[in-house]
């Protein structure tokens, strides 16, 4: 009898009415991600796959590979928990293209706005185009492909299956807070010479992208925003990045020199580490809340519930 009770308790701990409990599904997904890393680290050099670096080729190859790997793992998990792949943020509904385009615009505008007070304060200066016209068009397109990969890979990793499944276990916003904190922490751990502002702003951007997911029901807005924001910062405005030893990316479009105090410009970390970023984030939360109200999301049937 005791054995039957223990077996029932064990079964109840792992299985619910819909099969494996969401918390365990999330743990399996994280474990598979963790195991896949060393496998790729072993296999990719054998086939002479481009190493990850801050060049358009290194970034494009590896970010799109990361997205493909997460998409494959998501497919596997969807078979296990019997959920459609499209329910994890990448639905192909008629409004997907529109949401992506809106995200691109919303991503570009804050990156322009944050530079304006820095320029007015005399902390940055513009020195024309960095490339000849033909090269400028070439690198503009190549870097766009690279940062589109960043948008897909990072958004689908942190706000795709992981966000949806953990939400079922503990609620949408607790899951968003945990995953966004991990997102910021990874920037602190894996990028050299990071301070506290950059990881914090990245975590808050993660929370903002979770808000866009909740109000639109998909990741398309977040992907467009993420890709366009990083592209404008690092490719258009040639902002430095600690991942590139505090220097601008090769093939950036404008010659921009940042020479003001680090609290204002972000120093070698770029404007993501400027104190101004918190004002930008506050405005983003406010205006997105107004432009995409919860009431409208409920009426359209896209609001992601707890």
From TrEMBL:
One Pfam entry for this protein is Rce1-like
Q: What are the BP-aspect GO terms?
A: CAAX-box protein maturation
Instruction: List keywords of the entry alphabetically.
Output: Hydrolase, Membrane, Metalloprotease, Protease, Transmembrane, Transmembrane helix
Domain (CAAX prenyl protease 2/Lysostaphin resistance protein A-like): give its ranges.
140-231
Q: GO molecular-function annotation terms?
A: endopeptidase activity; metallopeptidase activity
Regions crossing the membrane: 21-44, 56-78, 99-120, 140-158, 170-190, 273-289
Q: What name does UniProt use for this protein?
A: CPBP family intramembrane metalloprotease
């Amino acid at each position: 009898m005791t054995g039957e009770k223990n077996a029932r308790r064990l079964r109840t701990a792992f299985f619910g009415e819909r099969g494996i409990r969401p918390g365990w599904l999330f743990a399996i997904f994280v474990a598979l991600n963790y195991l896949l890393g060393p496998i790729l680290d072993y296999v990719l050099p054998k086939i002479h796959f481009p190493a990850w670096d801050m060049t358009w080729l290194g970034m494009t190859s590896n970010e799109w590979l990361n997205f493909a790997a997460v998409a494959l793992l998501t497919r596997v998990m969807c078979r296990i928990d019997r959920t459609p792949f499209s329910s994890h943020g990448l639905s192909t509904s008629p409004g997907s293209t529109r949401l992506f385009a809106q995200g691109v615009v919303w991503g570009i505008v804050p990156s322009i706005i944050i530079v304006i007070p820095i320029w007015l304060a005399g902390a940055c200066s513009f020195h024309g185009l960095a490339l000849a016209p033909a090269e400028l068009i070439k690198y503009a397109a190549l870097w766009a492909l690279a940062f589109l990969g960043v948008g897909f890979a990072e958004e689908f990793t942190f706000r795709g299956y992981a966000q949806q499944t953990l939400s079922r276990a503990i609620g949408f916003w607790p899951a968003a807070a945990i995953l966004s904190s991990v997102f910021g922490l990874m920037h602190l751990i894996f990028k050299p010479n990071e301070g506290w502002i950059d990881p914090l702003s990245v975590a808050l951007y993660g929370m903002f992208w979770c808000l866009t997911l909740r109000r639109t029901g998909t990741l398309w807005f977040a992907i467009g925003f993420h890709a366009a924001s990083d592209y404008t910062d690092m490719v258009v405005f040639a902002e430095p990045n600690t991942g590139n030893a505090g220097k601008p990316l090769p093939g950036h479009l404008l010659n921009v020199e940042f020479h003001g105090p680090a609290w204002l410009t972000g120093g070698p970390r770029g404007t993501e580490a400027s104190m101004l970023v918190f004002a930008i984030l506050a405005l983003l939360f406010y205006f997105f809340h107004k432009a995409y109200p919860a009431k409208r999301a409920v009426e359209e049937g896209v609001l992601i519930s707890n």
